[in-house]
Specification:
This protein is 34% helix and 21% strand.
Length: 680
């Protein structure tokens, strides 16, 4: 991701003062989507590209929620297209009375058109705005749809959202067979990267399979040299989901607790509730909530209802059975959530979303519905599973003791009002600008690299926080131990927004927080430790797009007075080829890039008058080199950290940083092919 240098712009009132009707632009059809695609799919990066697939799959899932779809197949085709096929009812193809054309064409080309607004067709659905498949059509170079209905196969083709021909019958459907098959190629003028990732789509399909146990979802990669496929079907539903999330963390319970029920809302519409949870021997809370299969990252009223019922019911059980004595340790909601892994899935006919990312449920009635269903079932479960219940309460009591120790540790860190931004660490080289939108902080591995970064930075908007050694692995430590770690306290203090439940995004002191580590094994480990810290205790920083990873170069290539920097082996070989071509003439430009010999860290290799050196680490670069290659917003490359799938991210951090060795070995073996630039 390339960054542009921060500039201050003075806006003058140079607009035409004659503002008339002629200045009003009306965008027709799907033109608005093509003009502003990010408004509809979030962005046009890799995330937005995969969102196109999800939009079509979600339509098939809505058919499943209505009880008409059992199988969904996704194919990544060799030509770069994607096909999604289901066995639902099939999109209607008869003539729409208002539009005077096929309903299929209306659905594919008109925003806010679909069956989601008519509760006779869909009681609940994930895509309530009616923009899904039409947006995919608008952003596709080409889209083809086949519908099996009434014994016939209907077909229509589109180019950039516009019909290429009328809907026509192309054959007969097998007796009783229905469904929709959609194939599309993303528009290259909108998406610069059109390469779909098998793993990314598979993660979403796996999640949907857990949430919809009656559906089988499959994905197959048809591309050359990438042939692979997976099928997902989980009869145990969210109970299996909880086990999957916690597969790398030992459970303290013999079986997963499961609750299910439904109730009417104030408008007599049915709200369905499903909850599964278990406790593990770790210290983090992992609650994943969904509304109509949408991951509500920011929680909402269903989450509040769950937490309230959990705290009240466990407290009542503990006192009733003498596990907690009057006047003794007082258990709080935080104590009951330590080591808890839970999945909450609700089906709401008319969900109202709010929050920063519009993924926070706002329906007030859902809170009381969740409480009324979950609370009594949980109490009965505790009575029937007393050994598990006792272990849960004992863990909560230990958490209460640790909470008190953490309070004392937190008080120590606040001697100079550290969490409110005062008393900043002495090793922080702060910037002169105070506006978070225009300043950034580099968290740098090592004092040596920190020194170079301090000298090479732009002091106006760039702050430097050097770290000494590796920080504590927060995945395996309680909060009071975490707060006793000097380096972690410094990070919390410098960012200024607190941590955990007390995190306040409005107090973030820097718009960009950039992790800068060496491109070696130790650097990778430190980067993972830092990412774990942010994910566990400052997740909102990632969700709001504030966290980045710097990309320092691996190689310096020198020819005479000319110096070039390469960020990987491929770029290194291209630079060497270009230098040689300039010397030998244009004829050599047609040759393939030469493969240079491997260059070890710190080594210098001379090849035909060209000097190739590999950096040992950031500290080896002088301030000018570090600025030019890694810190100058005009020339640097930084990667923005995002969370595609919270449940899978949680599981990955547990695998990499937890106690279990075997899952980590399997992960490394499976993903070794993606590792670059590391001598492992």
């Amino acid at each position: 991701m390339k960054e542009n240098k921060i500039k201050q712009v003075n806006v003058k009132n140079s607009a035409n003062s004659n503002y008339t009707a002629e200045d009003i632009t009306v965008l027709k059809g799907l033109e608005a989507v093509r003009r502003r695609p990010a408004m509809y799919i979030g962005d046009v990066s890799t995330r937005g590209l995969h969102h196109l697939v999800y939009e079509v799959v979600d339509n098939s899932i809505d058919e499943a929620l209505a009880g008409f779809c059992k199988n969904i197949h996704v194919y990544i085709n060799n030509d770069g297209s994607v096909t999604i096929e289901d066995d639902g009812r099939g999109i209607p193809t008869d003539i729409h009375a208002g539009e005077k054309r096929s309903a299929l064409e209306v659905v594919m080309t008109v925003l806010h058109a679909g069956g989601k607004f008519d509760k006779h067709s869909y009681k609940v659905s994930g895509g309530l705005h009616g923009v899904g498949v039409s947006v995919v059509n608008a952003l596709s170079e080409q889209l083809e749809v086949e519908v099996k209905r009434e014994g016939k196969v209907y077909y229509q083709k589109y180019r950039k959202g516009d019909p290429a021909a009328q809907v026509k019958v192309i054959g007969k459907a097998d007796s009783g067979k229905t469904g929709t098959k959609t194939t599309f190629i993303p528009d290259g003028s909108i998406f610069k990267n059109r390469t779909f990732k098998f793993e990314t789509i598979a993660e979403r399909l796996r999640e949907l399979a857990f949430l919809n146990p009656e559906v089988t979802l499959a994905i197959k990669d048809e591309r050359k040299n990438q042939k692979q496929e997976e099928k997902f079907h989980f009869k145990g539903g969210i109970m299996e989901f909880v086990k999957y999330i916690d597969s790398t963390r030992p459970s303290i319970m013999k079986k997963v607790m499961y609750a299910k029920g439904e109730a009417k809302d104030e408008n007599s519409r049915t709200v369905e509730v499903e909850i599964a949870f278990q406790y593990n021997d770790q210290y983090n809370e992992n609650i994943f909530s969904y509304v109509n299969n949408i991951n509500t990252h920011e929680g909402g009223t269903h989450m509040v209802g769950f937490r309230t019922a959990l705290t009240r019911t466990l407290n009542n059980y503990a006192y009733k059975n003498g596990l907690v004595k009057e006047g003794g340790v007082q258990l709080t909601g935080d104590d009951f959530r330590e080591g808890l892994t839970a999945v909450i899935s609700v089906k709401v006919p008319e969900p109202q979303f709010e929050g920063q990312t519009k993924t926070k449920l706002g329906n007030s009635e859902v809170k009381s519905i969740v409480e009324s269903i979950f609370g009594p079932q949980l109490f009965d479960w505790l009575e029937e599973n007393s050994p598990d219940a006792k272990r849960i309460i004992e863990k909560c009591l230990r958490a209460a003791e640790a909470r008190e120790a953490a309070r004392k540790a937190r008080d120590l860190t606040r001697r100079k009002n550290a969490f409110d931004g005062g008393g900043l660490p002495g090793k922080l080289a702060d910037c002169s600008i105070n506006d978070p939108e225009h300043c950034e902080v580099y968290i740098v591995e090592g004092d040596s690299a920190g020194g170079s970064a301090k000298q090479g930075r732009d002091r106006r908007f760039q702050a430097i926080l050097p770290l000494k050694g590796k920080i504590l692995n927060v995945e395996k430590a309680r909060l009071h131990k975490i707060l006793e770690n000097d380096e972690i306290r410094a990070i919390f203090t410098v960012i200024g927004a607190g941590m955990g439940e007390t995190f306040d995004a409005s107090k973030i002191r820097y718009g960009k927080i950039i992790i800068m580590c060496d491109a070696d094994v130790d650097g990778s480990h430190i980067r993972t430790l830092l990412l774990t810290l942010f994910f566990r205790y400052m997740k909102e920083i990632i969700e709001l797009g504030h966290l980045y990873i710097a990309q320092p170069p691996l190689y310096k290539i020198k020819k005479g007075k000319q110096e070039f920097y390469a960020y990987d082996e491929e770029e290194r070989d291209e630079i060497i080829k270009r230098i040689k071509s300039e010397k030998k003439g244009k004829a050599e430009k047609e040759e393939k890039p030469e493969k240079s010999e491997a260059v070890e860290e710190g080594a210098v290799v001379k090849e035909g008058g060209i000097t190739i050196s590999r950096f040992k680490g950031l500290g080896e670069m002088n301030p000018e080199q570090l600025w030019a290659t890694t810190m100058n917003p005009d020339t640097r490359t930084v990667l923005q950290v995002s969370i595609e799938n919270a449940a899978d991210a949680d599981r990955t951090f547990s695998i990499l940083m937890g106690d279990e060795v075997e899952p980590r070995r399997e992960f490394i073996e499976k993903n070794a092919k993606y590792v670059r630039n590391l001598d492992v």
